[in-house]
Amino acid sequence: MSSFCKNQEYDFISDKCIVSYCFHISENGNLLNIGVPKGSHETHVAHIAAGHFPGSPEKDGLAPGTQIISLSIGDPRGTCPSQAFIRALNKCIELKVDIINLSCSVWPCMNFGKNGKLIKNLIEKHGIIFVAAAGNDGPGLSMAGNSNGIGHPSIIYVGAYLTAEMKEFMFCHYSSDEPVVFPFSSRGPSMDGSLGVAVCAPGAAIAGVP
Fold first, then answer.
1. Residue 76 belongs to a domain with what CATH number?
2. What domain range is 118 assigned to?
């Protein structure tokens, strides 16, 4: 099996342990990295964005068949080291991606220092669209962006909303009301004055994993 980035080759540990893995070989073959997902979140997000089922289009994601590059920047503790975040952004520039989706809400402050400069560079110079989760720290105001409410004005933050139909089927609560923002979804504006949340999308009952 070769590097995934070259031939998109991957495998599973066994028929009973369906954990996928792939290889990344670098430094002229002297360094082998084995990539293994640390959870189901990546699969869940990828399915929403690009799931493709030719025989069952109702299961498709928003952009079926879109090519995805998955970069893990967090660790099992739920934290995101700043250096991992910067390495991932630089890799996106190197690979000339079109869109970045940051689906976690705990990351280093993105409005200051190297992080802010790098984000501004990849958006303004390289034309990369940057979309990020608003976070799950609602319903208090000024919590969008991350845990301390600091965002970046060039990022499109997405919150979660609940429709009347979702209320009925998920919570047995009939309502003809307009969609509402989920209580857990972070709100704007950010404490730095930026909008905080630009758009909202359905925030439940969409899952590609059990």
1. 3.40.50.200
2. 40-202
101-145 tens-digit pLDDT: 988 765 555 656 777 788 888 899 999 999 888 888 888 777 765
pLDDT, one tens digit per residue, over 34-43 is 888 777 777 8
- Residue 133 shares a structural domain with residue 153: yes
Closest CA to 86 of 104, 71, 69, 70: 71
Beta-bridge partner residues of 24:
33
Please state whether beta strands 20-26 and 11-12 pair in parallel, antiparallel, or not at all (unpaired). antiparallel
User: What pTM does this model have?
Assistant: 0.79
- The total number of residues written for the chain in this structure: 210
Q: Burial of 88 by CB count in 10 Å (0-12 exposed, 13-18 middle, 19+ buried)?
A: middle
Tell me how far apart the alpha carbons of residues 153 and 43 are, in angstroms, rounded to a whole number: 28
